[in-house]
Design a protein that fits this description.
372 residues, two-stranded antiparallel sheet, 18 strands, 28% helix, protease
Amino acid sequence: MTVPGGITRRTLAVLAVIAVVFGSATPARADDIRDKQWYWAPLKVDQAQRITKGEGIIVGLLDTGVDDTHPDLRGAVLPGRHMAQDKPGRNFDSVGHGTGMAGVIAGRGHGGGRGVLGIAPRAKVIPIEPINDTYLVAQGIRYAVAQGAKVINLAFNTRDSESLRAAVREAVAADVVLIGTAGNDGDKDNEPDFPGSYPELLTVGAVDRKNKVAKFSNHGEYVDLVAPGVEIPGPAPGDGYVRGNGTSGAAAIVAGSAALIRAKYPELTAVEVVDRLTGTAIDRGAKGRDDYYGHGQLDLLAALTAAQPAPVRSSAPPPATDAPAAAAVPAPADAGGDGIPPLVIVGAGLVLLLVALPVAAFLIVRSRRAGG
């Protein structure tokens, strides 16, 4: 498959492995954007926020960065880090996707009911931009853990690697809730996302306003939960807004929900937080767990108020690999050809994809197999 200009999706994936586009053909108006957050009613977000707003919880956001000057994000964003440049950073977003996700998770809104209000508006987001290879993604996960993140949102698709798996195992050992996306190719090849399909992650698919799994939402045995992921508003770099479709938006809603649970029940382990989210989910589709809805659709208020449910997922650690974790992490120079300057293709990909798309979308640039 190609995008305008003859650049294949595989080329974009190799040169900017986790680049994610958060685009909209028509920016949403600032004065009515709160009304566009349609998922608040079915999730009973207003009632949930009377219980907790996520105070004291840090959410690691591995994405395209965050523009923390947006009015809805002032006070919500901690200093982040450019992994490719190995330096701290603030007020950066190479594409715009991360800014949108930060708003869905922890947006503050502004001006008496205006702007996007996140699921956990008193949580803090730490933006980490790993950009272009699995070594940097792995290091970004480790950085988020070191900065005290209790929840990490991984709304992208990259290639599978032992270095990435090792970092995920370390985050699990550190008692961090890891949220991943099911992917946006459900109506195409439906190839699993990485790290979203790892068993250690809580993998989230998307549903629409009618509680139906979105056509684009990947399906498979790795799907754990679904949440709203269609026409989700978010802040855009500067002071604008967009609305988009994708499992990224659904994952951000679940990440904010996990932050609320961690704030309400600080004694719970990460596994117990996940059990609350999956064990209280509304069963949809085929009875019991299925490959489209997973354990069901997010019920935020129930996850915050119900008695601790019985585990629905195994809490056993993943099997050890033959190679030690330290040996599995390559030096940056040996990153398998992914060490391309990160910003050039990301920017070009954004322009080309926005020209090609007449509707709002969260698009994950997917890594393809050779010849795919």
